[in-house]
UniProtKB/TrEMBL annotation:
<feature type="transmembrane region" description="Helical">
    <location>
        <begin position="189"/>
        <end position="209"/>
    </location>
</feature>
<feature type="transmembrane region" description="Helical">
    <location>
        <begin position="70"/>
        <end position="93"/>
    </location>
</feature>
<protein>
    <recommendedName>
        <fullName>DUF1129 domain-containing protein</fullName>
    </recommendedName>
</protein>
<keyword id="KW-1133">Transmembrane helix</keyword>
<keyword id="KW-0812">Transmembrane</keyword>
<dbReference type="InterPro" id="IPR047928">
    <property type="entry name" value="Perm_prefix_1"/>
</dbReference>
<keyword id="KW-0472">Membrane</keyword>
<feature type="transmembrane region" description="Helical">
    <location>
        <begin position="99"/>
        <end position="124"/>
    </location>
</feature>
<feature type="transmembrane region" description="Helical">
    <location>
        <begin position="152"/>
        <end position="177"/>
    </location>
</feature>
Amino acid sequence: MENLQHYVDQLFQKYRGSKQIEELKWEVLSNLEAKVADLVADGLSLDEAVKKAKANLPSIDSIVGERRKVYILPLLQELLQLGLLYTLIAWIVTMPLRIWGMGIFLNYGLFAICILIGIVYLILLGINRPASTQNLTSMNVRSAFLLRKTGWMLWALYIVGTFVFTTALYFGSNLWFSTPVNLTGPYQFANIAVAYALPFLSILIPQWLHAIPRLILKYDAGEGDIIAK
């Protein structure tokens, strides 16, 4: 929605030159577009939906401020929902690995985590949502962005570290003595392929952390009509 893009650009006009501000602006635009889409789906015209979404947007000064008052219960519900979804994806992906030693432990461990997250999620769903709208918690937006950035950096370091370790483990002697790699069969090839590919599954963790700033903005106390939906 081009008019919303222009509107958000104007709102953030005096806050420029910071990568965090650009990320924050993108989050605000994304939430604004999602809100307009929800209102249109509820029967409002596009113009009415845009007008109402703009009216319910908190002041940019409060958004840029570090600490925000948020509705903690729906935020935790959606965060757990994402965590459950990502864990289920990881569990399904690792199912074929149950024929492999560590794959059995990993797959059943992910299944146990799915059950645990699911139980907590159902408990939170059982809480009376309208009555919970008074439960506000102060959250630090800057810390949320820092956590997201740190999560991606640590993941990148982990991937590099595991790649180097796996290469040294399986091909260290070949590289050291400049000898050709000799794979004895498909089982050995599968073991090596899994050892290289499995760490990439951990990308779901920084993906989960990536959602936290967006959810803080989504459940900001200034957007009370979202909770009432």
